[in-house]
Amino acid sequence: MNGLRRFSPPVLAQLFWASNFVVAALVVDEFSPIELTWLRWVGAAPILVLVAWWLEKPSWRAAVREWPLHTLQAILGMVGYTLFLYAALATTSPVTASVISAINPAIIALAAVVLLGERILKLGVFGIIISTVGVLIVVFSGSTEGGLVFSPGDLLMLGAISVWTAYVIISRRVTTPPITATAVQAALSIVVMLPLLAIFGAPGLTSGVSAEAWFGLAWIIVFPSALAYLFWNIAVTNLGPSKTGVFLNLLPVFTAVIALAFGDVITIGQAVGGAIVLTGVFLTTRPGATRGADAAHPPTGPVATAAPAPPADPAEVSAEVSAASSGAPDAPAAPEPPRS
After folding, report:
1. Strands, E, within 16-147: which ranges?
2. Burial degree of 265 (CB within 10 A; 0-12, 13-18, 19+)
């Protein structure tokens, strides 16, 4: 029973984030990607505010003082990643999208080398190469033209992981606690997207949508957008960042299981390519693959929203200083949850 209490929160978080891929693919035909993204954050923002107030008791004034960073994060993560993901799901399968998304930790590690001066070791390079091969296998297996042809959805997912990489790199400058940052960015996303709604309209809302689509939207608001972040942060508290980060590899697995339950067909290429991607991600994000800041920042997306780790407790800072002076290795940072 104790093990169930400890390990069920990270498992549930990945399950809820995985459901976003499948449910969004079902409702994106009735809600446009712009509508679905905007309505998601309209519904999720109040819930996230309540969860942040309950768990983190934040200083909202301090969070608001970082509004330039939060606005940029909202544009990149809440709006950018989600729009790319939902647009992609109109032309690619949820399983393919989740497998391509799973390569994001390797891309982030590479970006950290270029932009943050981290050093990537041979193990990390090998993991990035393996992950890329796995994605190519998935794309190749999904091509109907007998060659390596990216569908529009596949290309949109590459855009999604690109903006998510930028989100994670910038998030290291944010000091607002994670759920509070997510809540603030969700609220800002509602405002940021108003010009898009004014230009492109809301065709789904004006023409009417089915009860099933409204139920799908409600699911996305409550489970992937709110409860998943609650369970994720509980897991980080109970298990620590390193053990919790291992559960991120369940995202494409759960996506495949849920897709099968909804009648989708999983190809051999998707299964083999997905396994290769997970192997590469494991090698890239395991301790010793990079030196510098933590590289285990998947998306997921994830929309999975990843927020920066909360500020360190003074006692922890003192302990880290002592460890550094004694030559002990740095403790890993809290892994970013996927944005899905």
Report:
1. 119-120
2. exposed
